[in-house]
Amino acid sequence: MSPPSRNRRRCTCRSASLDEQFDRLLPDELRHLSATHWTPVRAAVRAASLLTGSKRTRILDIGSGVGKVCAIGALSGQGTWVGVEQHPALVEPAAELARALGVADRTRFVQADAFSLDWTEFDALYLYNPFELPLFRDVPPGASLAEQTAQVQRRLAAMPSCARVVTLHGFGGTMPASYELLYHEVIPGVGLDLAMWIQRGHAVTWSAAS
Ligand SMILES: C[S@@+](CC[C@H](N)C(=O)[O-])C[C@H]1O[C@@H](n2cnc3c(N)ncnc32)[C@H](O)[C@@H]1O
């Protein structure tokens, strides 16, 4: 399946009210990022239902931003949610959001480059197009989009059999051939593609250098 078109992030006709209510929980200085960068509530609830198989499921949100998906996932579904986020300014607000919503015991936020974690320690992964748009202008660009998406593809290929992956608006690359697409929808009122994939193949070898 080809990646979604890169020429838009979000339809402007998004269902606003739920997200506007949710945004009130965020610090003022991070609210302006919501419409473009954080998963809409409706999509987060759907993603959580697709990612969490049982209360033992460990889910990694790759580029967790302000923690919206992890918090909504923990509220609406089972499992333990870990968010990895490169920007320090987003990590404490994410933990604070989880505390405010009473899900701090099933969420954890790590300030790190997503590629410094071993993704194979998780049963399920969530990606909302993490590498396409920079959040803050004053942060120097890291690896190129092409390099990061190639790295994601290698990491996905190395996931164990039955690993679940949910993407919202893709991740910039194509899923490895070992994955089967199990579910797809365009989130109503939001206009973003949500896809759920499952690893059917044998994991290829991954090393920390990948
Ligand atoms: C589109 S936002 C999605 C946030 C969150 N997952 C959500 O859906 O609400 C992408 C996030 O990925 C983060 N990000 C981008 N590259 C990253 C990397 N290499 N390691 C960790 N976080 C990264 C960005 O800082 C941003 O917060």
In short:
This protein is α/β, with parallel strands linked by helices and 210 residues long.
Characterization of the model:
This protein is 30% helix and 19% strand. With 210 residues, the chain is α/β, with parallel strands linked by helices. A 7-stranded mixed beta sheet has the order 3-2-1-4-5-7-6, with helices on one face. Helix 4 (41-51) crosses helix 5 (68-76). The structure holds S-adenosylmethionine. S-adenosylmethionine (SAM) binds next to helix 5 and strand 2.
Q: Any key phrases for this structure?
A:
alpha/beta; Rossmann fold; 210 residues; globular; 7 helices; 7 strands; seven-stranded mixed sheet; binds S-adenosylmethionine; disordered N terminus
Query: What would you give as the CATH superfamily?
Result: Vaccinia Virus protein VP39
Structural class: alpha/beta
Strand content: 15-25%
The radius of gyration over CA amounts to 16 Å
> What would you call the shape?
globular
The strand order across the widest sheet is 3-2-1-4-5-7-6
User: How many domains?
Assistant: 1
How many strands appear in the DSSP assignment? 7
Topology:
Elements lengths: L15 H8 L4 H4 L2 H4 L3 H11 L6 E5 L5 H9 L3 E6 L2 H13 L6 E5 L12 E4 L17 H13 L6 E5 L10 E8 L6 E7 L11
Parallel strand pairs: 1-2, 1-4, 2-3, 4-5
Antiparallel strand pairs: 5-7, 6-7
Helix pairs in contact: 4-5
